[in-house]
Amino acid sequence: MAAVKPLKQVVTKPSARPRSGERRLPRLSPEVVRDRVSLVAVVLLAVAVVSWVISRDAAITARNYHVQEVQGQVADLEQQNNVLQSEVSRLSAPSRVVDVAKKMGLVPVSPDQWRVLSASGGAGSR
């Protein structure tokens, strides 16, 4: 049998030893740092754009809700206006005015019973 030789252990001495409990991070190349910074910038930009789009959508939705609410109020007011116009037409009909006048004791007069008054003079004259 051939004798087994023990392996030599290679130990490298670090330039600065980390303190106990600390891990030393590997040094990154400038290309890797640039790529990671670019990635973070793109992600932040994407988050900003998505946030802006969501806020605009929320604002548009709120305005749409307000427009629908105002349109409902306009429809209600138009209906009330139509009801009131019908009531004005009914109350101002000549036949109704004559009936109300008769109930109040008013009677039609003939043209010879009319008296026309004119104002003459100033405020102090009689």
UniProtKB/TrEMBL annotation:
<keyword id="KW-0131">Cell cycle</keyword>
<dbReference type="GO" id="GO:0032153">
    <property type="term" value="C:cell division site"/>
</dbReference>
<comment type="function">
    <text>Essential cell division protein.</text>
</comment>
<keyword id="KW-0812">Transmembrane</keyword>
<feature type="region of interest" description="Disordered">
    <location>
        <begin position="1"/>
        <end position="25"/>
    </location>
</feature>
<keyword id="KW-1133">Transmembrane helix</keyword>
<dbReference type="GO" id="GO:0043093">
    <property type="term" value="P:FtsZ-dependent cytokinesis"/>
</dbReference>
<dbReference type="InterPro" id="IPR011922">
    <property type="entry name" value="Cell_div_FtsL"/>
</dbReference>
<keyword id="KW-1003">Cell membrane</keyword>
<protein>
    <recommendedName>
        <fullName>Cell division protein FtsL</fullName>
    </recommendedName>
</protein>
<dbReference type="GO" id="GO:0005886">
    <property type="term" value="C:plasma membrane"/>
</dbReference>
<comment type="similarity">
    <text>Belongs to the FtsL family.</text>
</comment>
<keyword id="KW-0472">Membrane</keyword>
<feature type="transmembrane region" description="Helical">
    <location>
        <begin position="37"/>
        <end position="54"/>
    </location>
</feature>
<keyword id="KW-0132">Cell division</keyword>
